[in-house]
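Course exercise 7: structure representation. Students receive a sequence record and must write out the corresponding structure in token form. The form below is the worked example handed out in class, using histidine kinase (416 residues). Read each field label carefully; the graders check that inputs and outputs are placed in the correct fields and that the protein name is recorded exactly as given.

STUDENT ID: A-19
EXERCISE PROTEIN: histidine kinase
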Amino acid sequence: MVPMSTTPSAQARLLAVQGWLRRADQRHRWVLDLALMALVTATSVHDLVSPDSRGPFENIHQADLPMWALIALVAGMILPLWWRRRVPIAAFGAIAAVSLVQFGFGVWLQTGVSLLVAIYSVAAYGSLRALAWAYGITAVELSLAVFLLVPFGEPLVGLFLLLGTTAGAASIGLVVRTRGAYLNALEDRAAQLEIERDQRIRLTTATERSRVAREMHDIVGHNLAVMIGLADGAAVLAESRGERSGEPLRLIGETGRQALGELRRVLGVLRSEPTDEDGLSPQPGLADLDDLIARVRAAGPAISYRTTGDVRDLGGGVQLTIYRIVQEALTNTLKHAGTDTSATVLVDEDNGSVRISVTDTGSAYPQGPAGEPGHGLVGIRERAGLYGGEVVAGPRDQGGWLVDVVLHNRPAPEDR
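STUDENT ANSWER:
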């Protein structure tokens, strides 16, 4: 007696074999169809080489038919099996007609098993109404063969067995049809659940993004607005008193307003459905570098800026990357080198490659923990990486700091 513990593994192996057969049937149907036709053909070899054949209940003499006629009958019942999936009703009709012809000659070839395959195919791939008609036609045809056309020792018993076998073939086809529909329903359900899961994830993400955007707008935006108001008020007060701090305070207010505008632009991207109030304004490019450098000059550093090559023909994504790299480099200059330094900004375009060089005369910049670069240099490397670029950043031999970036002619996703 087989232990009960082996039953799950045997069932798993059976399911694995069944799954393999199903996948093979889907990928290489023609191979299985040819194999089935070859198997049915093998059953007819004895009928072709022997003058006598054992029918269902009697010895059937087939010597009265020439060999070519027997071969034609065998071919007529085998060849339609090739189309049993695509046109199961037509294949059944052809096989049933040839079967009736053989019964009319008083012949019962073993190739007649193809009629069972045809009934199975109608049940599995055809309509249920067609199956009812096919089974009725088969029942009439077998009744004529048993009672009138082919010698039977026990006609009633023979008809009962033949109709039962035909019903079994139809039942197997219905089981395969039902199982296929069930598996397809499971696959559709799984696909639907996956779509619903993705939709829930996107909805949750959009909700969280909107929440973060609201909080950033309420907290950071409020603080920036307060800072701008205080800077503008202090600038007006300083100018009314004739103090020299008025201009730096005015620049603080302008920088704060720019930061508030960029914050709103970023929040507009963060939200799933940007409103008109937080709509996207054009991203900065090379044309905006003059204003950027003018604001940095006003803070104290002496900055020279020049471009070479056809920089104005660069794509918007490349221009935005150049602007952000120069902005970050000059921010580091102000932060670490101070206001008494001088800096040089060079943007050079040559055969599709762009070189951005920012140098200053300040001291070496401090490193992060364990000598790691700061977030600004990391951001520069990430932006350059979008265009397959290389970044060199570090102290110069003659003093000061160098940020040298080369962008290659690789369009960013937004340029495509």
